[in-house]
Amino acid sequence: FDMTFFRPPDPSLHHLLRVGKLTLTFLSIIMAIVSVLIIHLSRTISREYARLLYTVIIFTAFFDMYSQIIFDSQYIMPYLCVYRDNPLFNIPLNPAWGFIVWVTMFALNAPIYAACFIHRHQVIVSPESSLKLNLYAHVAALSIITTPSLTYGYAYYV
C-alpha cells in the first residue's frame, strides 16, 4: 500500500480536528461525571441498578478516552483505524492490536447493557412467574453474551 497517492492534510485543518477531538473527549468526561453525580443523588434508583449504570457510564468514558487519547486512530483513511494519527499518550502500540482492543471494548458494551436489561426485566416480573430468573441464569445469560464480545475485535481484524 503506497501512501504517495494521498495528499497530506493541511496542517491547520489537522490541528483544528485534533483540538476538536480532544475538546469533545474532555466534554464527554465532564458529562460522565455529571451523570454519575445525578445517579448518585437520585433516590429512586436501586443500588444494584445504580452500579450497572455506573459501569455503563465509566466504561463508555474509558472507551472514549482510549479512542481519542491513546489509540487515536486515523478515521479519514481508506482502511479504517489501521493507522495511528498522533496520540496524546504515545504508548508503543501496534495499530493492529490497538484496533483489536478498540473493537473489543466497543463490543463489551453489549453485556453491560444486557445486564441492565435483565435487571430491569426481573424487577417488573412477578416473583411466581416462570420468567423470573435466578442468579445462575443471570450469570449464564451474561456469559453467553460476553464470550463472543471478547472475540469480535480479533475476528473482525483477521
Automatic annotation (TrEMBL):
InterPro entries: Nematode_rcpt-like_serp_H. The chain crosses the membrane at residues 20-40, 52-76, 96-114, 135-157. Keywords: Membrane, Transmembrane, Transmembrane helix. The keyword Zinc-finger does not apply. The keyword Transmembrane helix applies. It comes from the Eukaryota. This is G protein-coupled receptor.
